[in-house]
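Q: For a teaching handout, I want to show students what a protein-ligand complex looks like in token form. Below are the inputs, and the small molecule is flavin-adenine dinucleotide. Please produce the holo structure.
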Amino acid sequence: MKRRDFLAGVSAVGLSGCGVRARTSALSPPLPSYDAIPRIMPIRAHVDRIFRVTVCLRPFRAAGPRLDVERVADKTVVHNYGHGGSGWSLSWGSSGIAVEKAMAAGERDVAVIGCGALGLTSAILLQRAGAKVTIYAKERPPEVRSARATGSWTPDSRIALTNAVSADFPMLWEKMCRNSFHMYESYLGVAGNPVEWLDQYSLSDPSPAAAQAQTAEPAGALSFASYRNRVRDLTPRSQDLPPGSHPFPTKYARRNSNLTFNIAGYSRQLVNDFLVEGGRMEHIEFHSPSELSQLSQKVVINATGYGARALWKDESIVPVRGQIAWLIPQPEVNYGVQYKNVNILSRRDGIVVQDLGIGDVEGYNNADEEPDRAAAESAVRVVAELYGRMLAVPLR
Ligand SMILES: Cc1cc2nc3c(=O)[nH]c(=O)nc-3n(C[C@H](O)[C@H](O)[C@H](O)COP(=O)(O)OP(=O)(O)OC[C@H]3O[C@@H](n4cnc5c(N)ncnc54)[C@H](O)[C@@H]3O)c2cc1C
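A: Here is the structure, written as tokens, with flavin-adenine dinucleotide included.
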């Protein structure tokens, strides 16, 4: 989730059983019945319901992900790392490109280093292409950094800097994006809901313009690439919600629908799919590229994410820190909200509460992976304040 997406999600607009229904207004035309807001069940936003706080580092490269091929002694190494805040979203498309390059070498016994979003999708696509595959990794899910992501379809989130990419990168990005999206379609409706569409509501009291001014990027801020317009046809347009059509207490509200990845279940499914097809996993940590010589395979896909900075001494990877406070899952809450720079997403495996901070540069070049409990609680208090306003109950 990027700040500009967050702000773009805010535009002019307004719990039976215990859900919240729309407030009525004589002045506002109702939404057509087929488009009406479903019952909004409140989130139980108490700090003692935080069951974990996680920190993840986005493996950001100004030029975009590394996908070139390198010879290291007798090995052909295909790189597949550096996907910033878009690693899950672009995984299938990026790994498809890496697999094509790996299979072009003619070998049918292939190694993958890494068991995160990019390693798992590379391994599965290699199997589909007819290869025998072994994953070598220091960690596997749920320990990998990928397991600590928000879980949204965000294909151009901190993926590159506008002025640092090659001329053909936007087209390559579009190819990765469309191929990934197509693959994700096949996970919809699958038992356990590894992937699903959720409505997301962007809420604000100031007008969108005022909100934007309040959170303006500092002067000289980095210009992160934005390619969303190239794939406008993939996802629905967001929709302004007129006052009275929704139960939220803010002056402005907008709804859109986005793909959500329930990462605990989804990554388990990827691991299982890989093992069922005869894949092997070995626990190993590499300290330098020369250690690849111990592998029997001649072709290796390097999907080590942020780990490539140390392993490959690739200082073009910049860590972009992000923290999530996890509230106990509430299956009855089936939507996301953005409010006061906090992103809330109700996943099957926990309710994500993420302080987006000010600007896309938030967390940039910060490699601190220590959770900040006070910041986590403060983000949850923002959620509590929202529902307090909605339900007119005092904060506690
Ligand atoms: C807060 C936050 C929220 C995010 N939200 C989203 C989102 O909603 N949607 C989205 O698309 N993306 C999101 N991202 C980005 C996404 O999480 C990353 O782009 C993605 O996880 C990168 O995956 P990876 O497989 O490259 O790396 P990792 O998940 O880090 O996997 C690397 C693998 O390589 C192994 N490895 C590394 N070094 C070595 C070594 N030396 N020897 C052996 N093995 C090694 C590791 O053990 C691991 O198995 C988010 C990131 C953050 C920080």
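A: Two things your students might notice: Residues 373-391 form the longest helix (19 residues). Residues 60 and 262 are 23 Å apart (CA to CA).
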